[in-house]
């Protein structure tokens, strides 16, 4: 595959629009996680409450992704995207001018899920423009909007330190409006988009076992990425911060570390899609799951050096990012006619995984044991089990729909 043939195969302005929409939305979606050290200080939260607060936007995104995916299939990704960005304005204005209580922040966090729901729209916009042999790369480029997390974790703490954390929500309105304008001008729905179907036809994909398998596998990769991205500032500050070690990391420095780990996950996503196009998403995912499990166990050793920890977390996040690209190299081959709704469903499962990770694993185990060790031992064990299940499931796929004669590397 060369760059020229890829450019001719689809519609680059729409692909770029899908990336921009996902990028700015992802930046907004993880604001609570990026500002966690500032927000939690104001409200004096426990370890479990901290984890729950940064996870609420992920839960909102998980819930909103399915209706947004259906909307993208019914009215087109361009209109659905503009609706999603318009709804995202609400929590940003509220967080800027309000958000004076924990309950308000929880409600704002939930509404930030409108930004997280962009996934179901932006990926369907990109996917419909490209043939099967380019799905991994196209979905990887669009999905590299995960990099918006790095913008939030890098700039968010600095703006919060200078102007207060409420102002960060106000500043976020600027890039969102700019992207809305660019999206209006550049995005275009693919001409081959299927005609709208009755609602029950979209929901019919729930009856397929593969829908649930993809959901589980994506809950590990995307759930791991977004869950840890939101929890990482709490994690690094808890282990290496100046609140526990004299001369330890400041909140701003923690933001830099989180940014590095997030960049590793975000920018490796297109690479994962590209490699999956070359050697097959199933083969690549088997390797990635194994490395993710090993990385989680390495993190559980809690090295004294934050540099060593940064290496471990960056490897884990890079593999999670590549895994996200790999999963979505496979999905369009199985559900080409329902890509919007299936993206919403699988994306919702990924968001749910991201919600469960800090809320029911990392946060509570830290509070009950006084250490982050147990949480990552549990994470490593879960991913190891998933690796074995994935191997068994993909063997059955290769006997049914994932045929070599299709011309697609699985």
Q: Could you write a compact summary of the structure shown?
A:
The chain is mainly α and 410 residues long.
Sum up the overall morphology in one term: globular
Number of helices: 20
Largest sheet: none
What is the helix content? over 70%
Q: What is the number of E strands?
A: 0
C-alpha-based Rg, rounded: 20 Å
Straight-line N-to-C gap = 17 Å
Structural class by sheet pairing and helices:
mainly alpha
Order of helices and strands: HHHHHHHHHHHHHHHHHHHH
Q: How large a portion of the residues is in β-strands, by DSSP E? A: under 5%
**Which blocks of ≥5 consecutive residues have pLDDT under 50?**
none
Give the integer mean of the pLDDT values. Answer: 89
3D structure, described in words:
The structure is a single chain. The protein has 410 residues and is mainly alpha-helical. It is built from 20 helices and no strands. The radius of gyration is 20 Å and the shape is globular.
């Amino acid at each position: 595959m060369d760059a020229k043939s890829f450019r001719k195969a689809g519609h680059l302005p729409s692909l770029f629009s899908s990336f921009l929409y996902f990028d700015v939305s992802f930046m907004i979606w993880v604001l609570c996680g990026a500002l966690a050290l500032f927000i939690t200080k104001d409200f004096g939260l426990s370890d479990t409450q901290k984890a729950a607060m940064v996870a609420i936007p992920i839960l909102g995104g998980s819930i909103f992704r399915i209706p947004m995916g259906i909307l993208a299939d019914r009215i087109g990704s361009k209109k659905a995207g503009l609706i999603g960005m318009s709804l995202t304005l609400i929590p940003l204005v509220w967080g800027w001018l309000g958000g004076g209580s924990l309950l308000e922040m929880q409600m704002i966090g939930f509404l930030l899920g409108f930004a997280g729901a962009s996934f179901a729209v932006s990926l369907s916009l990109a996917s419909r423009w490209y043939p099967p042999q380019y799905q991994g790369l196209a979905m990887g480029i669009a999905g590299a909007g995960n990099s918006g997390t790095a913008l939030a974790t890098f700039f968010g703490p600095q703006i919060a330190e200078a102007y207060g954390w409420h102002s960060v929500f106000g500043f976020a309105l600027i890039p969102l409006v700019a992207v809305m304008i660019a999206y209006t001008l550049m995005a275009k729905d693919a001409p081959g988009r299927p005609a709208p179907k009755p609602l029950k036809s979209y929901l019919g994909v729930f009856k397929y076992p593969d829908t649930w398998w993809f959901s589980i596998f994506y809950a590990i990769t995307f759930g791991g990425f977004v869950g840890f991205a939101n929890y990482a500032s709490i994690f690094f500050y808890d282990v290496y911060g100046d609140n526990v070690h004299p001369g330890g990391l400041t909140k701003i420095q923690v933001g830099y570390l989180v940014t590095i780990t997030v960049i590793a996950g975000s920018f490796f996503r297109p690479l994962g899609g590209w490699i999956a196009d070359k050697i097959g998403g199933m083969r690549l995912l088997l390797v990635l799951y194994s490395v993710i499990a090993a990385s989680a166990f390495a993190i559980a050793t809690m090295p004294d050096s934050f540099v060593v920890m940064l290496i471990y977390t960056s490897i884990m996040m890079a593999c999670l990012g590549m895994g996200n690209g790999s999963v979505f190299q496979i999905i369009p081959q199985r559900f080409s006619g329902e890509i919007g709704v299936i993206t919403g469903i699988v994306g919702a499962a990924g968001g749910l995984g991201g919600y469960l990770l800090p809320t029911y694993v990392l946060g509570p185990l830290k509070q009950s044991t006084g250490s982050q060790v147990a949480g990552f031992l549990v994470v490593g064990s879960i991913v190891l089990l998933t690796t074995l299940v994935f191997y068994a499931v993909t063997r059955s796929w290769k006997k049914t729909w994932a045929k070599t004669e299709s011309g697609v590397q699985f």
